Every structure is written in C-alpha cells, then in structure tokens.
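Retry 2 of 3 after timeout on previous attempt. Resubmitting structure tokens to design endpoint.
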C-alpha cells in the first residue's frame, strides 16, 4: 500500500455509527475551558475517524492498550517513554513547527528531548563543561547570539548539554558525575560565547522499552546524529530550543526523532592553533 493510499474503511459511503462521535463531542458542551473543549473535540473526532478508517480489530485495540500501559510503567524520574513516542512519531517536531517563529535572522528550532535536566552551574567564557576526563577529541564551541537585525544580545543565557563518549547522558549513567557535559553560560557584551567540550557522538535513544520495540517492528533504527543541545533565553526574546549537529554524521538523513534541519548542521574545523572548533551564530526572535 502506498503512503498516499487510503485504508479499506475510508471508501465506505457512510461512516460507521456517526451519532456516537457527535454524542461524545456534544457531552463536552459543559466544559468550562473552551480550549479544552476544542482540543478534546478534535481529538475524539480524529480518533473515531482513525478507528473507522483502519477498521481497528478488538485484538489491535487490546494491544494498543497494552502498549500504552507498558509505556506508562517504564516511566520514571529519568525515563520519559511518552516523549520518546511523541519524538519517533514526528509529533514533537510538529508541535515545535506550529509554535516556533521562523524567518530571516531567526535560528531554526528542534526537539528539547527528554534529557534536559534543568538549569546547570554557570561557567565563565571559555570554560570547559566536562567534570571528568572524557575520551574523544577536544572541541571549542564559539559563536554569537543576535537579534534578527543583527544586533548583539549581551547577557543571554545559553544552556548546553550533550552525551559522553559512551553515548549516554549523565542522567542515564551512574558513572558520570551529575552535571557532566552540561552548563550555563552568559553571552559577553558583544553577544559572544565560547566553551570547551569534546566532539559529540551519535547515540541511540533509549530503545529497551515500547518505543524501541515499535521502532524495530517498523524496520527503523534508534539512532540520533551527533549533536549539542542549546536552550537560549534572554529578556524580550522568544526562548530558542535547538541543537547544533556535526556535519558528516551517518545518521543526519535518518534521525530517529526527525530533528535535523539543514541550517543546524556545522562542520568542525581546525583553528589557527590547530584546535578543533565549531562556530555557530544564533538568532533570537523578538517577543511581540
Ligand atoms: C536527545 O537529543 O537528547 C533526545 C531527543 C529525543 C529523544 C531522545 C533523546
Ligand atoms: Fe541529545
């Protein structure tokens, strides 16, 4: 079946049991919150259409309930299976796309992911985000934060995080000191920032639960191309959640969470001192 072909139920003349959908939606009339009523009405209508279009069997319905139950059961303070499911189905990127302003001078956004662990220690210009030695090539990351007109944004907060060479974030790995490969920086008076890290590596998203099982059943791999996360905020500007990806990574065209945008790919280069370095300039949209 091609991706544009309809499922068998869609060519029926009459939808099955249309009055049920109407009744479920009508019973929301008393909802005090109009936005909740709108969103839930659309959800019910799309869910019912999905059941009709696919002619969902009882067995499939039971296995979906079992799947969601297992997704809930594997969640913990450091494991968020529902974010993973949203990510691998492209929902996270779509929610981002309908909410993020784009345009000239504004950096593209991408997924936050489940491994942001709150604001970290603030480091000074040029400091290292490592809390222990790390295998891999030392890397300098530099750039500026500007508004769409190109003016510097001094004092912007730049939060960064990445995995260690073993493909794990500190929150996934008891051997790493908490806060390893994470930090917060403030941009200088010219909007500039600089920090020291190691070249990031590609890694699999957690695939030992329902999200991973689904990927396998769908013939997909769990890998993300190497990247560094950035969360950049400044008063008067929209907060930017994005990554910078390393050029040449084998997974750039098949990111498990669909997070890659061409504008976010950068090639590490040797600077005059022979050090590996990337430079990336960020543009923040003004708050209206
Ligand atoms: C991440 O880049 O940290 C990430 C994003 C989505 C799912 C899993 C991990
Ligand atoms: Fe990541």
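Retry 2 succeeded. Sequence:
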């Amino acid at each position: 079946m091609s991706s544009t072909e309809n499922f068998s139920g869609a060519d029926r003349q009459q939808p099955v049991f249309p009055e049920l959908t109407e009744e479920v939606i009508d019973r929301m009339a008393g909802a005090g919150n109009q936005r909740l009523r709108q969103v839930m009405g659309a959800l019910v209508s799309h869910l019912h259409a999905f059941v009709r279009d696919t002619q969902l069997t009882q067995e499939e319905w039971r296995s979906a309930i079992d799947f969601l139950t297992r997704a809930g059961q594997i969640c913990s303070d450091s494991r968020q299976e529902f974010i993973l499911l949203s990510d691998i189905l492209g929902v996270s990127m779509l929610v981002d796309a309908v909410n993020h302003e784009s345009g000239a001078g504004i950096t593209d956004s991408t997924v936050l992911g489940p491994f942001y662990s709150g604001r970290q220690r603030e480091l000074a210009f040029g400091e290292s985000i490592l809390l222990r030695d790390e295998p891999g090539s030392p890397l300098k990351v530099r750039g500026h934060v500007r508004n769409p007109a190109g003016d510097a944004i001094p004092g912007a907060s730049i939060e960064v995080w990445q995995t260690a060479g073993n493909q794990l974030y500190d929150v996934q790995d008891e051997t790493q000191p908490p806060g390893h490969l994470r930090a917060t920086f403030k941009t200088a008076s010219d909007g500039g920032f600089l920090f020291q890290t190691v070249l990031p590596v590609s890694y699999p998203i957690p695939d030992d639960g329902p999200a991973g099982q689904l990927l396998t059943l769908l013939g997909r791999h769990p890998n993300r191309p190497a990247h560094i996360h950035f969360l950049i905020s400044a008063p008067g500007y929209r907060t930017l959640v994005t990554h910078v990806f390393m050029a040449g990574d084998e997974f750039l065209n098949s990111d498990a969470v669909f997070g890659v945008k061409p504008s976010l790919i950068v090639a590490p280069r040797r600077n005059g001192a022979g050090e590996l370095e990337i430079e990336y300039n960020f543009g923040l949209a003004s708050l209206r």
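Attempt log closed. The longest helix spans residues 34-54.
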